[in-house]
Amino acid sequence: MKVRLPKHREFLIKFEDNYEKADEAWEALNQIVKDYSVDGKSIYTETFIEDNEDKVKALQETYEFTYEIIEK
């Protein structure tokens, strides 16, 4: 039997140690996921990265974090 597993991409978000607004930023980032799931989509939707990268970049301007997109 052969099984083809789809590749999955994720945002890897990093904050500096002891960043004071990290909790606030995580809340805003999690809101992106909640808003996305309203339409029945999830982080496993193939276009999650493309659909939300602009929103993550906008938050990056407000909060001090870096991110990269990793493939699993």
Question: Any overview of this molecule?
Answer:
The protein has 72 residues and is an alpha+beta fold. The protein has 2 helices and 2 strands. It has helices spanning 22-37, 48-62, and strands at 9-15, 65-71. A two-stranded antiparallel ribbon has the order 1-2. Helix 1 runs antiparallel to helix 2 (48-62). The mean pLDDT is 93.
* Unreliable stretches: none
- Determine the strand fraction and express it as a percent band: 15-25%
Largest sheet: 2 strands, antiparallel
The value of Rg in angstroms is: 14 Å
Number of helices: 2
> What is the arithmetic mean of pLDDT?
93
Shape: globular
Order of helices and strands: EHHE
What is the strand tally? 2
The chain-level structural class is alpha+beta
Distance between the termini: 22 Å
Classify the helix fraction into a percent range. 40-55%
